[in-house]
Structures are given as structure tokens and as C-alpha cells.
Specification:
84 residues, 3-stranded antiparallel sheet, two-stranded antiparallel sheet, 5% helix
Length: 84
């Protein structure tokens, strides 16, 4: 986020695989657009900055966002359904 010029708006203590760390939080909006007839947007949220280098992810969606939706993962098909 710092590479994008977005300044942090806070900090949080988080437990990671490397132990407890203090991580920056950034203002963010998360949108799922054109999912059939459904569009979901979560704002404002605070995105926690974490080093995901070496991982096959660009982001992780936390329970603070998922608490407002129904998420169903079908592992055999590799499909995720999100609804509310």
C-alpha cells in the first residue's frame, strides 16, 4: 500500500505465522461487481498490511468482511459462492 502512496490510518497487533506483529492498516473498499445480478461492496474497511511475498495470494478476506455474507466453498468444483 505504501508503494501506492496510501498512508496508514492505524495499526493493529496481529498473530501471524512468524508470531505477533504490529501491522499498518489502510483505508480500503472491497467490491464484487457483476456477479450475476448481485453486486457487493464493503466500505469503508481497514485493510491490514501484511507481507504475503512468497505466497500465492494477493489478499486475504477477513471475518470482519465475511460476517455480513454467506460464503460457500465447493472444493470439488473449485467454486466460491458469496451471497447475502
Amino acid at each position: 500500500m505504501e508503494g501506492l502512496g496510501i498512508p496508514p490510518v492505524g495499526m493493529i497487533q496481529a498473530g501471524t505465522a512468524d508470531g505477533k506483529q504490529t501491522l499498518n492498516q489502510y483505508p480500503a473498499r472491497l467490491s464484487f461487481i457483476n456477479i450475476g445480478e448481485l453486486s457487493l461492496s464493503f466500505e469503508p474497511i481497514r485493510a491490514t498490511g501484511a507481507d504475503l511475498s512468497g505466497q500465492p495470494y494477493i489478499a486475504l478476506i477477513g471475518r470482519d468482511v465475511l460476517t455480513g455474507v454467506i460464503l460457500v466453498y465447493n472444493g470439488s468444483l473449485g467454486v466460491v459462492n458469496i451471497g447475502y
